[in-house]
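SEQUENCE WITH STRUCTURE:
===
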Amino acid sequence: MAGEMLHRRAHWLPPFADWFEDFPMELRMPVGEHMIRVEESEEDGAYVVKAELPGIDPAKDVEITVEGGVLTVHAERSEEKKEKHRSEFRYGSFTRSVRLPEGVNEEDISATYDQGVLTVKAPVGAVEKAARKIEITGGS
């Protein structure tokens, strides 16, 4: 009887993996990757994302992509082959994805890197959502 009660009670919660299915994309991260810290703001008609990437060569270690309204910054930092007593630096892959607001012109996105900070500017145009009349078919 007690075993039957435990068995029935265990099924009132969804499977653990299902809990994360509806998580925002920004909170999901591949295993083994570190999250890049960012600041998001709007300045002069542009959506601006600043990412902390100290000690990285942006020309060879950073990739920025835009797909389906999502901006993704991916960076790699390789560990130097030196004898160390202790290291608290993070090495490996760093990734961060940010959903862009409506009206961003993906073709005009630009990026700069200065003193360890990557700045990505995405110009935001006017969002026009014109009302549209829907015709009804069928019926008498």
Residues 112 and 119 are 5 Å apart (CA to CA).
